[in-house]
């Protein structure tokens, strides 16, 4: 499959995102003039979601920096979601070792979630490398905590979610107060079909 994909790109004379990164890294690495121009053009670097950088992205970052350490990174080792694309939180966790003069600022106060969600996240992440023990900034009185359910397939999961949403709406819940989050876009197809079958209208965002 991969070779066929590469052949189609060659035939159409097209590049994908990885090709652009490879070409850029190659030019900086082999062309001193390009390296000098890039390093003079960009003085400081800030990398967000650093837990999701791939080896290629890390190599390109190091080539951009050269022998400088003018770098700020932001990340959370517990939120790596692109491991399927080669991303690794190891670069984040090893940052203080590679950049020994760096300052580490730990953001452990959570302003987004209720105490019940923060407590569940802490239990799930306990023992994982780099996991922070978060603290909820608010002590909101929410009596319903998160629940975890397992299903044999994406389709079964989608039908269960759609069924629960239909029940909540029938019980008086406002549709605009309900949201379904999924990890990758390909998961939306089963959810859209299940919601349609359940008679639940929805808006797709993102």
Integer average pLDDT: 90
- CATH hierarchy: architecture of the largest domain: 3-Layer(aba) Sandwich
| Structural class estimated from helices and strands | mainly alpha
Helix content: 40-55%
Shape: flat
Largest sheet: 2 strands, parallel
Q: Can you count the beta strands?
A: 4
Strand fraction equals: under 5%
Q: Might you state the CATH topology name of the largest domain?
A: Rossmann fold
Going by CATH, what is the homologous superfamily of the largest domain? P-loop containing nucleotide triphosphate hydrolases
- Please report the number of helical segments: 9
Query: Tell me, what is the CATH class of the largest domain?
Result: Alpha Beta
What does this structure look like?
The protein is mainly alpha-helical. The protein is flat, with a radius of gyration of 22 Å. It starts with a helix and ends in a 9-residue tail after the last helix. The strands form 2 sheets. Strands 1-2 form a two-stranded parallel sheet. A two-stranded parallel ribbon has the order 3-4. The protein has 9 helices and 4 strands. Helices cover 45% and strands 5% of the residues. The protein has helices at residues 2-12, 17-30, 32-41, 55-65, 90-93, 95-98, 115-125, 154-170, 188-197; strands at 45-47, 71-73, 109-110, 135-136. The model has no long low-confidence stretch (mean pLDDT 90).
């Amino acid at each position: 499959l991969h070779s066929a994909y590469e052949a189609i790109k060659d035939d159409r004379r097209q590049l994908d995102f990885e090709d652009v990164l490879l070409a850029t890294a190659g030019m900086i690495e082999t062309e001193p003039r390009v390296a000098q121009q890039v390093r003079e053009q960009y003085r400081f670097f800030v990398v967000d979601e650093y837990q999701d950088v791939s080896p290629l992205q890390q190599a390109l970052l190091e080539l951009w920096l050269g022998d400088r350490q003018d770098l700020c990174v932001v990340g959370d080792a517990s939120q790596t979601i692109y491991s399927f694309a080669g991303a690794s939180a190891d670069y984040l966790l090893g940052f203080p070792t590679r950049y020994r003069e760096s300052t580490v600022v730990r953001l452990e106060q959570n302003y987004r979630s209720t105490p019940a969600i923060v407590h569940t996240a802490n239990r799930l992440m306990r023992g994982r490398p780099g996991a922070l023990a978060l603290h909820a900034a608010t002590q909101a009185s929410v009596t319903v905590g998160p629940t975890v359910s397992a299903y044999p397939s994406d389709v079964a999961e989608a039908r269960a979610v759609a069924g629960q949403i239909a029940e909540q709406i029938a019980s008086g819940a406002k549709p605009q107060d309900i949201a379904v989050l999924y990890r990758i876009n390909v998961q939306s197809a089963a959810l859209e079909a299940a919601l349609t079958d359940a008679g639940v209208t929805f808006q797709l965002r993102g």
